[in-house]
Amino acid sequence: AQSVTQLDSQVPVFEEAPVELRCNYSSSVSVYLFWYVQYPNQGLQLLLKYLSGSTLVKGINGFEAEFNKSQTSFHLRKPSVHISDTAEYFCAVSDKAGTALIFGKGTTLSVSS
Amino acid sequence: KAGVTQTPRYLIKTRGQQVTLSCSPISGHRSVSWYQQTPGQGLQFLFEYFSETQRNKGNFPGRFSGRQFSNSRSEMNVSTLELGDSALYLCASSSLDRGIGNIQYFGAGTRLSVL
Description:
heterodimer; A: 113 residues; mainly beta; 4-stranded antiparallel beta sheet; B: 115 residues; 0% helix
């Protein structure tokens, strides 16, 4: 069975500071990894994905993530955050079949000025 | 291209009633998945349909059911509603069959409140 652990439920940061949202996964098979963002009263928007190839993946809005197979991690980073990045972020995993996503509990990123 | 459309956006029902939620996938997408989001349990997979067939199912009671039509539109039904069914129900569609590149795109969700 697969599982996802997001290590921080809330991350407060100041505008223009760097941020890292941590995600660890557990799986006995090869997986695909995703980060989604959810703004209030909205659905989920795909930020970035790791399917294969380069372990450093770049997404939208200046976010990037690094897949580390030995540490089973897929941490999300942004070098300088904006107020508009305030949202909830979800890490997710699927097996190679890709029909069901297993989500972490989410991390609330709060950016203040 | 239009995104995933879910209707209605909000619903209020009472215990014991049943409810039907609708999802129109992105044009050309043949796979539709449903998820339940609650503050306590987070995001949980309900089921996935592809070409009118349920391919995968999460760990939910039989009160939760779904179907997919020939145009890939999907509905989910919850019978005998319980207070704990109050949640945001999200639909996601994807374009490819199983395998690499099966990326799910989400709708805005239907918020169901059970009183």
